[in-house]
Amino acid sequence: MSVSRSNGVSSNIPESSDDSEVAALGVQPEQSNAQRVASIPARPPAPARPTPPQRAQNNATPNSDVVTTGMQATQPLPPGWEMRVSGSGQPYFVNHLERRTQWVDPRSEMAQMPLPRGWAQGVTNEGRVYFIDHNTRTTTFEDPRTNRVYQKEYESSIPEYQRNFKSKLGKFRQYQVVTPRVECPIQVSRDNLFEDSFNQIMHTPPKLFKGRLIVNFKDEKGLDYGGLQKEWFFLLSNEMVNPNYCLFEYANDDHTTIAINSESGINPEHLDYFRFIGRVIGLAIFHGRFIDIGFTLPLYKQMLNKPLTMNDLEQSDPEFHKNLQWMLDNEIKDVLDLTFSVDYQRFGQLVSHDLKENGSEIEVTDDNKAEYVQLVVKWRLTRGISEQWEALKSGISDVINIDQLCIFDEKELEVLICGVNEIDVSDWEDNTIYKNYSPDSQPIKWLWEILQEWDNEKRVRFLQFVTGTCRVPLGGFRDLQGSTGIQLFCVERIGTPEWLPRSHTCFNRLDLPPYESKEQMSMKLALAVEETEGFANE
Hints:
By secondary structure, the chain is an alpha/beta fold.
């Protein structure tokens, strides 16, 4: 890797190749020197050498946001790439093959790709990353993902809707940059998880949220290489829906989604709690973790500032939706006696609310019923929660620029925050590597048979045991995240049949002893998943 320094700021800085991406995120590009200083000559049509790209204004803090992690810095750049330093001391990267420049370290983009099948990654005692090809039993310092043939094969294997999401996610991630040499420590007790987390997060300066997030549980042995962080998000998100706090309510009978409780004001600290929850959501988005609760789609649409429609009502109140649809499809003259107002119960009292000015005096007719439906839908989906929503949005904005989420639609935003929860065992098996086992080993065959026989709830609990999260990325198990980026699930032979299975959630690894029967393995796995908590997690 070569590094060169520019001699001052060039007057022929080319347009950034990422300007359109910046605009898509709702950020205006920074003015070039040629725009700021009238005496600087115009840019020639073809610069003699690549020069630094422009940076957007809200990402322009000098020397603080280069997209390179410590792990990536120990790896060589891909072929054809070079790192240089601008006149202001800001590193940038030159792609000589495509004759373009960018601020983002290409190694961070490459880390989003999984290793080819049969490959694994390790680190030497000196901290240098190396790669193991189990297919040929060889090791190398060259990252196999730099192979352009493999890159094209990987991209072509992804369904189009996933490629679109990955493209958006890649653009979004370029602006979520961990601040070097800054840490955000979180130490909580399992017995008082919600309040401990609330007190620490709300007393943490927002500038620390973009540092390295380090989570520890009190009185437990553990090093957070990412596993404890994932577990903290998982446990805390489940505490958020604790009915004792009156913050959320289930939006439907099957308890699969939640909505903001319009009567959360019964808790005098509810707005502080909603801002705290917003910060937790922002932290999860920024650090690439998942929240283990599913909000209603209207809440995601509100995050994106998208208008709410009648279809959004169907999920939370299908009967009310059905009645409104009947109004639109049929004549209501002499059938319904309605005005542009609604009555509802609030803390046991009947309250009347005008949907528009003097609404209680305006009759709903066949001519204006469409307007009535539009207003009543908006009221039904947002009634009594405007303050709570503003507090939640404020908390998210303490961590990330919430406007940058607008490149996603509401369903993509749900995936970004919650991941995918349905476990495809075949996909899991296809994207698993083994150490001291092979796919044909009898214990491995038993493992996949057991997981196929378990119901989805039990599979989710097993996934949480071995990875620290119950969510699967949109791309499936091939995109499973570890402590250093994408890291496939690994099963390693360790111990004797008397041992319990052990997990290393930071590395998505299961230590599986060579059990002597399928029944013994099933019992040991169930015991480990259901009974084990907080034992020297990594």
